[in-house]
Design a protein that fits this description.
152 residues, mainly alpha, Arc Repressor Mutant, subunit A, 2 domains, two-stranded antiparallel sheet, 47% helix
Length: 152
């Protein structure tokens, strides 16, 4: 199977869970970038999108950084998906020749399937909060909450 081309959602959920378990307050983007192994600039871009939707807030300066704006139980993964992807298609769809009746039918049906798939995905994601991502065991068997923000 080919690797996914859009990892923003997974990285954003990772960042939100790090913020949810950060008791010391604001966490700077350099520290947040370590665990998901991404660039601090990418952290700021992702969290900036989530800030626009009221999920996180930031403060500048030496002691500044990122915090959750709402309780982790109130931030659902469907909201994260919507903030990052808006109405983007799940499926990679092409524009067929407008004169081709087969191409028009295939595209129309794929658009319908894409909407159904997105509705199903969002219905599932809307049932899971950031707090839920910290509950229960991880695949290694250790509690998910045992993970901490790693110092660079």
């Amino acid at each position: 199977m080919a690797p996914p081309t859009n990892l923003r959602f997974a990285m954003a959920v990772h960042l939100l869970t790090l913020l949810a378990q950060s008791p010391e307050g604001a966490v700077d983007s350099r520290r947040l970038a370590v665990s998901p192994a991404i660039n601090p600039v990418h952290v700021r871009r992702l969290l900036g999108r989530l800030r626009e939707e009221g999920m996180v807030s930031s403060s500048p300066g030496h002691r500044g950084g990122w915090t959750l704006s709402r309780a982790a139980t109130e931030i659902h993964l469907g909201d994260v998906w919507r903030a990052l992807n808006k109405d983007a298609a799940l499926l990679g769809l092409h524009e067929p020749d407008p004169q081709c009746p087969t191409g028009r039918r295939v595209r129309s049906r794929l658009l319908e399937l894409d909407r159904q798939g997105l509705d199903a995905l969002l219905a599932t994601l809307d049932r899971v909060s950031v707090a839920d991502m910290l509950d229960g065991p991880t695949s290694s068997g250790s509690p998910a909450g045992a993970v901490a923000v790693v110092e660079p």
